[in-house]
Amino acid sequence: MAANTRFAVAIHAMGMLAFGDELNVTSDDIARSVRTNPVVVRRLLAQLTRQGLVMVKLGAGGGARLTRPPEQIALSDIYLALGEGPIFQVPLLDETHDCAVGRNVGPVLNAVLLRAEKGLLAELQTITLADVIGKVMRRMKRQGCARHVPGAGKARK
């Protein structure tokens, strides 16, 4: 079963966009950084734009920018903007299914997993894009590579 990386790619992209005052960030730039097709990035940016987190300027010299400072964007905003639906999907079997466990495990698991998802969203609401950028920059600094990134050590204000 393949893992869904859209949320991580969206955070990565928005982290790059946080330096928009110093860099003109395009979908091609982001795609190279996350090693994916630019079309995938453009689709993510379109979703983030529809939810008011990103604005995009098309054409030569175009690029994308955050609509507000990273300190004002919670990870839950990004997650919800992607409209992924439930994190966990449990198949529900109808009452005619032969196995009693199969008929009953789905509703029980749905209740448990819904509570877990609410907890995840509550936690994501406490973490901002600026928090993530700060941790990334500190790791880069320890590795000696932060000097290669405009705005190293600070996010766009």
SS-based class:
mainly alpha
Biggest sheet, in brief?
2 strands, antiparallel
Named CATH architecture: Orthogonal Bundle
User: Might you state the CATH topology name?
Assistant: Arc Repressor Mutant, subunit A
CATH class category label: Mainly Alpha
Residues in helices, as a percent range: 40-55%
Overall, the morphology is elongated
The total number of structural domains is 1
Fourth CATH level, the homologous superfamily: Winged helix-like DNA-binding domain superfamily/Winged helix DNA-binding domain
Describe this structure in words.
This protein is mainly alpha-helical and 157 residues long. It has one domain (6-148): Orthogonal Bundle (Arc Repressor Mutant, subunit A), CATH 1.10.10.10. The chain contains 6 helices and 2 strands; from the N terminus they run αααββααα. Strands 1-2 form a two-stranded antiparallel ribbon. Helix 1 (6-17) packs across helix 3 (38-50), helix 2 crosses helix 3 and helix 4 crosses helix 5 (100-125).
Describe the protein's topology.
Layout: H1 6-17, H2 27-34, H3 38-50, E1 54-57, E2 63-66, H4 75-81, H5 100-125, H6 129-142
Antiparallel strand pairs: 1-2
Helix pairs in contact: 1-3, 2-3, 4-5
Question: What's the gist of this structure?
Answer:
By secondary structure, this protein is mainly α. It is 51% helix and 5% strand.
Tags for this model:
elongated, mainly alpha, Arc Repressor Mutant, subunit A, 51% helix, 157 residues, two-stranded antiparallel sheet
